[in-house]
Amino acid sequence: MSAEPGTVRPGGRTARVRAAVLRAAGDVLAEQGFDQLDLADIARRAEVGKTTVYRRWGSVTGLVADLLVDMAEQSSPREETGSVLGDLRANASLVQRTLADPRQGALFRAVIAAAACDERTAAALWRFYEVRVDEWAPCVEQGVARGELPAGTDARAVVRAVSAPLYYGLLTSGVVPDAAAAERAARAAHAAAAAGVYVTE
Prior knowledge:
The structure is a single chain. With 201 residues, the chain is an all-alpha fold. It has 2 domains: 14-71, Homeodomain-like (Arc Repressor Mutant, subunit A); 77-194, Tetracycline Repressor, domain 2, CATH 1.10.357. It contains 9 helices and no strands. α2 (39-46) packs across α3 and α8 (155-173) runs antiparallel to α9. The longest helix is centred in the middle third of the chain and has 27 residues, at 119-145.
């Protein structure tokens, strides 16, 4: 079975083409939003052939899907501080810095808005977050192993609980979360986890 357009990671010379096209797509998303994405315009901005872009990605949604794959690959790896609270703080801080970044924050808002009305974009966004949750879940699992959290704690649910209030606050108020918001999110998720809220077994 063949892969969807844009989901096969190229190597060698074509890696430069992919990087240029994804950068151009991210710029348009951040500056103008999903509605302004056009493959011909992206090709022009990236200074690559239009047929190359159409052949490799096929559609705007295919391009956005690959952009999210790239973003997941480029995201910072988890930090291990030696305590589950410290790790959750590191995770919250990473999310907060991403949302506060002028380009990244605008890009995420555009993709989230597009995902609300486009199934392929929504699926790509879900895959992006699955990758990020998978990256950070071991921090919680290690906390359980050290006895900091109850056995049976759902590690993935705890990681989601850290970032959820930061995204919710941004989307419902338009206010970019600050460091204090990140600290509250980490402490709240940790307190709930320590109290057994996320025990599922």
